[in-house]
């Protein structure tokens, strides 16, 4: 997959999937094999537990759209401790960029990126992973967040606009192209 990006001169990858699906792990693996790339995590952008839709639009308008026009993009960090915005971060137009998080992939965002990836993981595995990772901090918000994810799926159908569906197998990751 990295070979395709390099050959095509790609600079922007979007990785979406539901909570606990393995998006962050996939982004980290991609970053290791794609030199000079930067990962922007929607977990750093969501303005609190009700911010999935806002973050999706923010990434498209402030980060992806300017970069697609050859200008630097930017994104606003959210401070979860203070519950307030915490500064802007700029990403050069030619910097290799991986945006990962629930809500990253929508039809409008995909049109501004080189590659879209949907990470598919069974619900019971996702929940176990997410709660092991974030524990009691996340537990009271699981249903609230899942409702936003379902809304995102209904409105944007990220799986349908992805170029690849990634699933875990015993032998590693399986990359299935959505279209031939």
TrEMBL record:
InterPro entries in UniProt: P-loop_NTPase
Do you know which SUPFAM superfamilies this protein is assigned to? P-loop containing nucleoside triphosphate hydrolases
**Can you name this protein?**
Uncharacterized protein
């Amino acid at each position: 997959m990295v070979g395709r990006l390099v050959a095509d001169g790609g600079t922007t990858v979007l990785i979406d999937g539901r909570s606990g699906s393995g998006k962050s792990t996939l982004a980290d693996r991609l970053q290791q094999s794609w030199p000079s790339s930067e990962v922007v995590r929607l977990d750093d952008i969501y303005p609190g537990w009700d911010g999935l839709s806002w973050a999706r639009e923010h990434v498209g308008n402030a980060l992806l759209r300017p970069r697609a026009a050859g200008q630097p993009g930017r994104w606003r960090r959210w401070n979860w401790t203070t519950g307030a915005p915490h500064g802007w971060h700029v990403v050069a137009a030619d910097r290799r960029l991986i945006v990962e998080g629930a809500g990253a992939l929508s039809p409008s965002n995909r049109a501004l990126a080189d590659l879209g990836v949907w990470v598919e993981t069974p619900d019971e595995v996702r929940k176990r992973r997410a709660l092991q990772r974030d524990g009691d901090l996340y537990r009271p918000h699981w249903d609230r967040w899942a409702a936003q994810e379902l809304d995102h799926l209904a409105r944007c159908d990220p799986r349908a606009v992805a170029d690849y569906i990634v699933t875990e197998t015993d032998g590693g990751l399986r990359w299935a192209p959505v279209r031939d």
